[in-house]
Specification:
209 residues; alpha/beta; 6 helices; 13 strands; 32% strand; globular; binds uracil; UPRTase/APRTase; glycosyltransferase
């Protein structure tokens, strides 16, 4: 079974409070989401393998460590996932970025792909799939399936806020994918919004309604 990690770092939790606040405007919301994405990225990359190396300091030779050639990819699910990409890239500027767009078919209610552009070598990369609001989990599960069908072997899912229903859906469909969140909230309401949540993440990021 995949693991669910709730990242309870005090800075993440503090900033999440401002992100949830309905008084927080677009500019501040965007900045905070980016900062939290960076802090979450710091935790998510904690287990990257290291290799020993040496470096000449002004005094002597030091035995040191560097990340052992692990290739990363960041895959935001459009549109709200875009808001977390730059924060992650501030830590890992060489990571490649792919994009997945899904919409929900109004009749079948199933996610349908409308856009997909991925790094050519996704099978060699560890992919961090980004979906800020894990609500029903339908889009995230579909995105993970789509990536597996295109060759992805190693993935993690990074969300700001999850509903228990979304976590369950993803864990059942993808027991090999660990999920990293800043909070698991109470429930979904009848409109599919996470309660208490933060509202519509895409609208709040981009100032739309
Ligand atoms: N998507 C959002 O942006 N917010 C929610 O609460 C649920 C899905």
């Amino acid at each position: 079974m995949s693991q669910l990690y709730v990242l309870d770092h005090p800075l993440i939790q503090h900033k999440l409070t401002y992100i949830r606040d309905k008084q927080t405007g677009t500019k501040e919301f965007r900045e905070l989401v980016e900062e939290v994405a960076m802090l979450m990225g710091y935790e998510i990359t904690r287990n990257l393998p290291l290799e020993e190396t040496t470096v000449e300091t002004p005094v002597t030779t030091a035995k040191t460590y560097m990340i052992a050639g692990k290739k990363l990819g960041v895959i935001p699910i459009l549109r709200a996932g875009l808001g977390m990409v730059n924060g992650f890239l501030r830590l890992m500027p060489a990571a490649k970025v792919g994009h997945i767009g899904l919409y929900r078919d109004p009749e079948t209610l199933q996610p349908v792909e409308y856009y997909c552009k991925l790094p050519s070598d996704i099978e060699e990369r560890e992919l961090i799939v980004i979906d800020p609001m894990l609500a029903t989990g339908g889009s995230a599960a579909a995105a993970l399936t789509l990536l597996k069908n295109r060759g992805a072997k190693q993935m993690k899912l990074m969300c700001l806020i999850a509903a228990p229903e979304g976590v369950k859906t993803v864990q059942e469909a993808h027991p090999d994918v660990d999920i990293y969140v800043a909070s698991v909230d109470e429930m979904l309401n009848d409109h599919g919004y996470i309660i208490p949540g933060l509202g519509d993440a895409g609208d709040r990021l981009f100032g739309t309604k």
